[in-house]
Amino acid sequence: MNENTGDTILRIEDLAVHFPLGGGLFGGPRRLLHAVDGVDLELKRGECLGLVGESGCGKSTLALSILGLQAPTRGRIILDGQDVSGASAGRKARARIAQMVFQDPYSSLNPRQTVRRTLEAPLRLHGISASSEIEGRVADILKRVGLRPEHAERYPHEFSGGQRQRIGIARALILEPKIIILDEPVSALDVSIRAQIINLLLELKETLGLSYIMISHDLGVVEHMSDRVAVMYLGRIVETGGWEEIFTNPQHPYTRALISAIPDPFRRSRGAKITGEIPNPLDLPTGCSFHPRCPEARDICRAPSTPEFRQVGKGHLVRCRRVGEIGMPEKALLA
Amino acid sequence: MTAKPLLEVENLRIDLALGNKKFAAVQDVSFTIGHGETLGLVGESGCGKSITALALIGLLRDPLAIGGGTIRFDGREIQSLSASEMRKLRGNRISMIFQEPMTALNPLSPVGRQIAEMFVLHKGASWREAERLAVEALASVRVPAPDRRVEDYPHQLSGGMRQRVMIAIALACGPDLLLADEPTTALDVTVQAEILDLIRDLSAAKGTAVLMISHDLGLIANMCRRVGVMYAGKLVEERAAEDVFRAPSHPYTSGLVASLPLLGARARHGRQRLKEISGVVPPVAAFPTGCRFNPRCYAASDICRANDPAATPLNSGGFVRCHHHE
Amino acid sequence: MKLRANLLIGGVLFAGVVIAGIFAPWLAHTDPVMDANLMYAEEPPGQEFWFGTDAQGRDIYSRVLYGARISLTVGIVSQLINTVIGVCLGLSAGYWGGWWDDFVNGLTNMMLAIPSLIFALAIMAILNPGLTSLLIALGLTNWSFTCRLARASALSLKSQGYVQAAKVLGYGDLRIMLTQLLPNMLGPIIVIGTLGMGGAVLAEAALSFLGLGIRPPYPSWGSMLSDARDQITTAPWISIFPGLAIFMTVLGLNLLGDGLRDILDPQARARRA
Fold first, then answer.
1. Residue A23: what pLDDT?
2. Is B7-93+173-320 assigned to CATH 2.102.10.10?
3. Could you give the ipTM of this predicted complex?
4. Which among A90, A111, A172 has the least Cβ separation from residue C184?
5. Residues 199-238 in B contacting A (C-alpha not used; CB under 8 Å)
6. Position A278 confidence tier, pLDDT thresholds 50, 70, 90
7. Which residue, of A136, B34, C8, C70, is most buried by count of CB atoms within 10 Å of its CB?
8. Residues spanned by the domain of C17
C-alpha cells in the first residue's frame, strides 16, 4: 500500500499462525491447524476496527499475535513503525504500544491485588519510579474511567461487574498505549450496564486519540462503535470495508448470513440463512472455504486455491468469486 | 382442549435462605401461558427468571424454595403433587432445555440412548422401538445422518449439535410446555438462528407452548408473542412483543431499549450516544424498598421509594408496575 | 466471622507445643541430658517428677519439653524445604509446560512410587544420624504432593485473564509466577504444608525410634519411646508422656490444617460472602 503510511499505527502483512497437532513419539502424523492463514490488516490512528466472526475463526489468535503472546508462523506485524514479528521484540516493548481489555471482568483482575497495586506495578516495571508521578497517573486514569480516588485501595471483589470492567480499562490505559484490543468488552456485562462501558470506550478513544481493534460477536455493538469492519472465516478475512458498506451493502454471503442471523425485534422473521457448522479446520474444503455452507455456492467456488480479494467499493474488499452475480437479500437492506 | 390456560402462575414467591435470613428472590410474579402460546421472560442475571422456570418444573433446590403463590398446570396445582407425580409430569408434559447442554447430557451414554430413554420411561416403548423413535427424533431436529449420530457421545458433538440433542430429548414425548432457559446464549449467531428456527417450527407443529428465557430483549421480542420483563425478582411489565420495543411502558424497559445499540440504528439515524441506566443491578439481599427500580430510575419520586407499585393494566393489553404510568 | 472449633483446638494445641519448645529452659526442672541420677530411676509421676523418671533417673517432664524443640525444628524446617522445592518445581512446570513439565511430572511420579519414610531411611543410613541429616532426609522426600498441587493450580490459574493481562503489560515469566500465580495458590499450599508438618513430626519420631534420627542421650520423642520399650509394662509413664506429646502435636497440626483450609479455600469464602 502506498497510501500515507504515517497514518497507519498497525500493519499486518500475510500473517499466519499454525498450530501443530498430534505428532510426537506415538501421535501419528503431525497435522497443522491453520488458526490464522494469511491475514493482511491495517489500523489507522484514531480508528476502531471491528473484527467479527464465529468462534474458531481465528480472531482471538490474531489478537494474541499482535500482543506478542502467540508467535506467528509467517508474516509481519508492524506496530507504530516497528517490525515486531521477530522474536527479538519482546512483550515489554510492545506493552507500551498495544494493550488489551478482556471479556470477563471477573477473571481478568487478580483477586489478591488492590486496584492501586494493579495500576502501579506496570508503571514501576516500565521504569517510572517517582512516586509523585505514579500517584498522579493512577489518580488521573481512575478519574478518566469514572472511578473515585478512594477506589484505589479496594480489592476486585468489592466492585460490580461494570466497575471491574472500568478497572480493566484503566489497567489497559495506564502505560499510555496507542492501540487497545477490546476482546468482547461488554458481552459478559449485565445488559443495563453495557451502554455505560460502550460510551466510556468511545469517549476515551476521542480524548486520548486511541485506536481500537474490537473483537465482538454482537453486531449491534460492532456497528455502533466501528469505523471499519473485517469479517473473518476460518482464519481468513473474507470481507472488509467501512462500517456503512459492511452493514448496508454486505457482499460476501457469509457477512449477509451473520447480519440476517441477528433476531429482528420488530418482526417475527426466520433468521437462518445458512445451515451447517464451521468445518473442521484440520480438513479445510478446497477453494472457497465457505462453500459447503454457502447458499450461493456453484462449481466455480469449489475450484482449488482461495478466492482473491476483489474490490467492490472504496476500501471495500470481498473474497468471493461470485460477487456481483448474487443479488441483494431483502433483509440486508438496513438503511 | 379446554378454555383454561395451560399454565397459571399466581403471586409466585421464591425465597432464598442466606444464613438465618430469608429473602424474596422472586415476588408477586403472575402470568399465564395458553396452549401453544409463546411467552418470553427477559431480565438480567439475578432478576429471578431462571429460578422461576425451575420452580415451574419442581427443580428448586436448597437454599431456594417456593415461599408462596400457586402454580397451576392444566388445572392442577403443581405444589400439591407428590414427587413421583412430578416426575411423571417432568420430561413428559413439561420439559426444559438449558444454556449449556454439555452439563445436562450424560457424558457416558450415547445420545441416541438418552433420547430413547424418554420413550421407554414415559411412553412405555420397548428399547428396540425407542431406538427407532430416537433416530426419528434426531432427524426432526435436523441433525444430519441421524442413524449414525445416535451412536455418538455428547463430547463428540459440537455445541449446536448438543443443543439439538437436548431439544430432541425435551420434545421426545410431545410435551405441552417447553421451558427454554437461554438456549442459545453459548452458541454462535448463525447456529443460534438455526436453533431458534427449530424451536419455533417444532413448537408450532406440535402445538407446544414455550416459555423462553433470555437476557436478549431483541431475541425474545422476535421469538415470542408476549413478553414479560423482570427486574429484581418482580415482573415489571408484560405485554405483546411488538409493543415492547415500540412503546415500552416501564422506565426499566424503556431504559433498556434506549441503551442497546440495535443493528441498523446507526445506519438509519447516525451514531447517537447510548442512553445509560445509572447504577447496578442489586443483589437479592439488598433489594431496595418501594419500587425495586427506584434507585436507578430517572423518574423516581417519594412514592416510588415508599410503596411498591401494583400492576396497572395497559390499554393495549398486559400490565406495568409503575407509579408514574398514566 | 465465626471461629471454627478445629481451628481453635488445633491452634491451642500447636501454640502449646511451640511455647513448650521455646520456653523449655525456663519451664524444665532439670537439664534433660546431664541430670541423670540412678537414685531416682523409674520413679512414677508425682510431686517432684511430674511425669516420672526414666531408667536413668532423668525427669521425663523436662525431656518432653526439650523434645518439643527437636520435633518442631524438624517439622517446620523440613516442611519449609519441601514446600519451597514443591512450589518451585510445580509452579514452573505448570506455567511453562513442555519438556520441563514432563520431567517434573516424571520426577514427582517417581517420588510418589517410593515410600517416603523408606527413602528417608535410606538417606539417613548414608548420612550420619543427627539433626542436620534429619532435616535433609525429611526435607527432600515429601514435596511431591505440594508439587502436584502447585502444578495443578498453575495450570488453572495461567489461563485466567489477569495472567494474560500481566503478559500484555510486559511482565516477565518469573515476575508473573511470583506476583500473579503464587499469591493465588498460597492458601491450599499452606494447608498441605501444615498437614505435612504433622507427618514430618511423625516421621522424625519413627526415624529416631529406629535409632536413625536423633541419637540418645538428646531428648527426642521418638528416641524416648524407643528407650522406653523395655519398661512399657513395668513403668508405662516413660512411654505414655512422649507418646502423648507426639499425639497432641500431630492432632493439633492436622486440626489446624483443616481449619486453615476452611478459611483459605476461596470457594468456601465465596459461599460465606
1. 53
2. no
3. 0.88
4. A111
5. 200, 215-219, 221-223
6. confident
7. C70
8. 5-22+59-158+185-272
Q: Sort out which chain A residues have CB atoms less than 8 A from B217's CB and list them.
A: 191, 265
Contact list, A172 vs chain C (CB under 8 Å): 165
| Distance between CA atoms of residues A36 and A19, nearest Å | 10
**Nearest-10 crossing angle of helices C131-139, C116-126:** 140
Report how far residue B68's alpha carbon sits from residue A23's, in angstroms, rounded to the nearest whole number: 61
Subunit partners of chain B (3 or more CB pairs within 8 A): A
Please say whether the beta carbons of A216 and A184 come within 8 A.
Answer: yes
Lowest mean pLDDT among A51-60, B236-245, C55-64, C105-114: C55-64
B196 contacts chain A (CB < 8 A): yes
Say whether A277 and B160 touch across the interface (CB within 8 A): yes
- Look at A104 and C180 and tell me if their CB atoms are within 8 Å: no
Set of chain B residues whose Cβ sits within 8 Å of the Cβ of A161:
280
Residues in chain B closer than 8 A to A264 (CB atoms): 218, 222
C68: left (phi over 0), alpha (psi -120 to 50) or beta: alpha
Determine the pLDDT at residue A333: 43
Residue C267 has pLDDT above 60, yes or no: no
Which CATH number is C223's domain given? 1.10.3720.10
Place of cell 457469509: A254
Radius of gyration of chain C from its Cα atoms, rounded to whole angstroms: 22
- Is the pTM of the predicted complex or chain greater than 0.90? no
Q: Which of A21-35, B145-159, C72-86 has the lowest mean pLDDT?
A: A21-35
**Mean pLDDT of all residues in C141-158:** 92
Q: How many angstroms separate the CA atoms of C126 and C140, rounded? A: 14
